[in-house]
Every structure is written in C-alpha cells, then in structure tokens.
Amino acid sequence: MCEAGMMKTVYMYVQDTMADWEHGYLMQALSLQVMLKKPKVSFKTVGRTKAPIRTASGITLVPDLSLDDIDVASTAALVLIGGETWLDKEQAAILNLAAELLQEGFLVAAICGATLGLADRGALNTRFHTSNASFYPEMSPHYTGQIYYKDDVAVCDGNLIIASSAGSLLWAKLIVEKLDLYANKTIEAWFDYFSTGDVAAYARLMSSFSE
C-alpha cells in the first residue's frame, strides 16, 4: 500500500512496436518538475515483464518494473502508448489493469493504438473519446461507443484522457492539468510555446516558476 504522504507514480507501459515518439511532450512536461522545489510525481516504465522491448523506431528499452511490481495505490496515472500489438492476447493483463484503474477512479491516458486496446475492453463504450479516426475503434467487435466519439485530437472524460496519433501535445497538456503539476500560467505558457514556437511564450514559461 502507498503510505500517507508518499509520492505517487506515473506508470508508462512499454511494449514491442511502441510508438516511441508519442510520449515526447509528456516526458518534457514531467521533466519540468526540476524547476519545482519538490517534485509532485515520479515516473516509471512498466513492461509485461522486465525483458527488453523494441520500439517502432528501433530503440531497445528495458522496463523499470514488470506489471506484477505495480503498487496500484501509488498510481498517479497509467499511460498507454500506441503500437501494433494492442489486440494481441499478451496485452490482456495491462488492459485489465487499465479497466480496473478506471473503475476505481485512477487516471488512465491512452493514445493512438492504445485507444483500440481500450475499445476492445469496452472502456470507450460509455465515455467520450477520440481515436485515430472514427472507424479505428470499430476494428474491435466489442466497441459500441460510436455516439460518444468526438472528432478531436484529444478528449478528457473524467479520469480518462484519450488522443489520436496527432494529439500528443494536447494529450500531454490534459494529463499535466489533471495531475495538477504546475500553476495554470505555467501550463498555458508551456502549451503556447510548443504549439507556436513563440520565444515570448518560452520566456513566460521560465519566469512562471519564479513568480
């Protein structure tokens, strides 16, 4: 169990074929905690086992933890990245955990192919969501949530944050907001900078930590 006052953890699941570019903005946003006097969350990668995985771009990653090592009570968020294997039987354990966490009120964030995995577990049938396209979740016969589909790059419905493969920046912003990591002015300046490249936004971002 997570002891009172213990820092909670953002767990990111990693698997073979993981689209390793989709979490870049989220990693950058989490790394900004170095500007705080005290970080609010820690970060760990999680694999089905601790065996190395090979990402879609050919990078080999060794997970920090296996699924069996996760302390559910310590979870700040479970992050699921796109890939080509989300309908494979080997992903049943992580998808079952995601469904359990959603039911218990924990934050779950999924992007791209991971949205198909959640659709296959029925997790999108009664929640507002998006995906790579409206027909994408329909690749699963268990998906019946068409009336909840939104034509946006990222959608937040309670403790579920979903994005298309084009929505990684907004998806990261929604996650950071839900985790309450930074002041609103910091988050807005961060989003403005990475969405526009405006150096004035970068200056606002840096100064927001000392105001």
Automatic annotation (TrEMBL):
Residues 8-176 form the DJ-1/PfpI domain. GO terms for cellular component: cytoplasm. It holds the Pfam family DJ-1_PfpI. It comes from the Bacteria. InterPro entries: Class_I_gatase-like, DJ-1/PfpI, Prot/Nucl_acid_deglycase. This is DJ-1/PfpI domain-containing protein. The lineage of its organism: Bacteria, Bacillati, Bacillota, Bacilli, Lactobacillales.
